[in-house]
Amino acid sequence: MSQNQVAPSVIRTRCCIAGGGPAGMMLGYLLARAGIDVVVLEKHADFLRDFRGDTIHPSTLEVMHELGLLDEFLKRPHDQMRQVDGQVGDERLTMADFSHLPTRCKFIAFMPQWDFLDFLAEQGKRYPTFHLRQKSEVIALLNDGERVSGVRVKTPEGEIEIRADLVIGADGRHSIVREQAQLAVQNLGAPIDVLWMRISRKDSDPPQTLGRIDNGHIMVMLNRREYWQCAYVIPKGGIEEIKAAGLDAFRDEIAGLAPYLRDRISELATWDDIKLLTVAVDRLEQWHKPGLLCIGDAAHAMSPIGGVGINLAIQDAVATANLLAPKFLNGTPTQDDLAAVQERRMFPTRATQWMQIQIQDRVMSRVLGSAQRPNFPWQLKLLRAWPWLRRWPARFVGMGVRPEHIGAALNEKR
Ligand SMILES: Cc1cc2nc3c(=O)[nH]c(=O)nc-3n(C[C@H](O)[C@H](O)[C@H](O)COP(=O)(O)OP(=O)(O)OC[C@H]3O[C@@H](n4cnc5c(N)ncnc54)[C@H](O)[C@@H]3O)c2cc1C
């Protein structure tokens, strides 16, 4: 099924995955590896989008190791973060130390997400049962009575239908799959949005990725070698107020948080250089219906807090493949099989979202609503007094709750 071929109007497959993000690409790769015919549909022409995290967690790296892909993967340019530092006012603190994790890689790898997804696409292409179709946007679900039986897809060559034994919604926070399936969404609320911008980087700048909190402002700076990818946190809906104050005032705020950027701050030439990313935290009450299962952000939209959404999406994909690959190999997954995926992944989802909500409501909202210079809360100061305590946040961020492992059914079939 190369991109150059004229698309037939109806394609049949065992599993059709809507969305080529971390959840969809990992699941597509794993099912194809187990010998199951799978079509992954991605609406964009490539994976080059800015609004995605760059974090590959120790638990995801462990999965790569179990798949025999780790060495190849780590050849791609990346940075390794072995501890997480935070700066509040002038005070700096190590908040998480990954060096004691029971994983092969005791670091978070920072790699642009498009490189990670490209890598999975390249690996997937080794299997004849893996079909990635880019520029293919799911626009509707197809139903056979009560059962979802496929999707309608918009492509540059016109609309096509993909018929499948199972449709997976892995199409992210604004999932059309979950909307069309009318699955009930529980909105957990997110009081923040993020302004996303890039400013060039000089060799004389500090090397680390860093979170900074000061005088009512929060900013995270990701080191992408030639430039800084900056995530500036604002109260939800606060963009109009920021724009009303003017671009100069905004540039001043950014340079105040990272003074070494002052000589380049004019790179933010217009508001077009600053993108608004809306943050949502929600989850489906039921992730499935006959013929359909949602995973990743489509099942539970994650806040950027803690940088754990990608990891959770990957872990969902591994659990789904572990549970459903044997069912595919012996027939078609039943509604009970789909429920088993939700049952396995609901607890990690609830626990992770609970933690994100505590941080966004108790820390971020307070910082953003205050003009005073903040201090580290006493709980975090304990991390300085007893460094071994840093292992707990490292475990939560680095491995997540209930890390998944590659099961026997996912062994290579060629
Ligand atoms: C501002 C921001 C920063 C973040 N930073 C981090 C971070 O640093 N680390 C981290 O772990 N998490 C981060 N997150 C959370 C993380 O991005 C998500 O949890 C994670 O990407 C979810 O993966 P996914 O595969 O489920 O969905 P997504 O990554 O959203 O992927 C969905 C894919 O589906 C495609 N798609 C959508 N609709 C259709 C359609 N109709 N047809 C076909 N394809 C479609 C999209 O183009 C996309 O490629 C951040 C979130 C935000 C909002």
Topology at a glance:
Elements: E1 10-18, H1 22-33, E2 38-41, E3 55-56, H2 58-66, H3 70-74, E4 79-81, E5 83-88, E6 91-97, E7 108-110, H4 113-124, E8 130-133, E9 137-144, E10 147-155, E11 158-169, H5 176-180, E12 185-187, E13 192-200, E14 210-214, E15 217-224, E16 227-235, H6 239-245, H7 247-257, E17 275-278, E18 282-284, E19 288-289, E20 292-294, H8 309-330, H9 335-368, H10 378-385, H11 391-398
Parallel strand pairs: 1-2, 1-11, 2-8, 5-14, 11-20
Antiparallel strand pairs: 3-7, 4-7, 5-6, 9-10, 10-11, 12-18, 13-16, 13-17, 14-15, 15-16, 19-20
Helix pairs in contact: 1-4, 1-8, 8-9
This protein binds flavin-adenine dinucleotide.
Flavin-adenine dinucleotide binds at residues 18-24, 41-44, 51-55, 137-138, 170-173, 176, 194, 277, 279, 296-298, 302, 304, 307-311, 313.
Characterise this structure.
The structure is a single chain. By secondary structure, the chain is an alpha+beta fold. Helices cover 32% and strands 27% of the residues. It is built from eleven helices and 20 strands. The chain has helices at 22-33, 58-66, 70-74, 113-124, 176-180, 239-245, 247-257, 309-330, 335-368, 378-385, 391-398; strands at residues 10-18, 38-41, 55-56, 79-81, 83-88, 91-97, 108-110, 130-133, 137-144, 147-155, 158-169, 185-187, 192-200, 210-214, 217-224, 227-235, 275-278, 282-284, 288-289, 292-294. The strands form four sheets. Strands 1, 2, 8, 9, 10, 11, 19 and 20 form an eight-stranded mixed sheet that branches. Strands 6-5-14-15-16-13-17 form a seven-stranded mixed sheet. Strands 3-7-4 form a three-stranded antiparallel sheet. The longest helix has 34 residues, at 335-368. Bound molecules: flavin-adenine dinucleotide (FAD).
